[in-house]
Amino acid sequence: MNYWLVKSEPAAYSFSDLERDGQTDWTGVRNHQARNFLSQMQPGDLVLVYHSVTDKEVVGIAEVARAAYPDRTAEPNTPWVAVDLRPHQRLPRTVSLAAIKADERLRQISLLRQSRLSVMPLQPAEFDVLLELAH
């Protein structure tokens, strides 16, 4: 199993929206590196959902329900892909960006090193630390 973090502006699509919908196609990624990460996702992988821009916090865990396929929102014959995500669980307590920055164990997390990237891998230890901070 691999671990990931995806970012979404809550006004555009929030974790609550994912819970309401039960599953969604994660579309609209238009960065080559983020697309490559989406392409590596496999069903069963766990994905932390981070609310960017306004909230700046990790709010829940999703699960990859379907591996990468052509993004329906992209122009035809382009390399953009989507995956299907379904809600796994809401975190008992959100984990703020400030808390992530303050934890020495997370100093190498991609969220801090490549802050504009919307899809990124997490090391298993980083995933575990984030879950610990959420309890």
Question: Can I get a quick summary?
Answer:
By secondary structure, the protein is an alpha+beta fold. It has helices at 15-21, 32-40, 97-102, 110-113, 124-133, and strands at 3-8, 24-26, 46-51, 57-70, 81-96, 119-122.
Structure description:
With 135 residues, the protein is α+β, with helices and mostly antiparallel strands. The protein has a single domain, classed as Roll (ph1033 like fold), CATH 3.10.590.10. Helix content is 27%, strand content 36%. Strand 3 and strand 4 form a beta hairpin. It is globular and about 45 Å long. It starts with a strand and ends with a helix.
Question: What fold name goes in the CATH topology slot?
Answer: ph1033 like fold
- So what's the overall shape? globular
If strands are numbered along the chain, what order do they take across the biggest sheet?
2-5-4-3-1-6
User: How many structurally independent domains?
Assistant: 1
Beta-strand level of the residues, as a percent range?
35-45%
Name given to the CATH architecture:
Roll
Low-confidence stretches: none
The chain-level mean pLDDT equals 97
Give me the count of strands.
Answer: 6
| Helical proportion, percent range | 25-40%
InterPro entries: 5hmC_binding, EVE_domain, PUA-like_sf, THYN1-like_EVE
Organism: Hymenobacter oligotrophus
Pfam family, one: EVE
Protein name: EVE domain-containing protein
Task: Give the key terms.
alpha+beta; ph1033 like fold; 27% helix; six-stranded mixed beta sheet; 135 residues; 5 helices
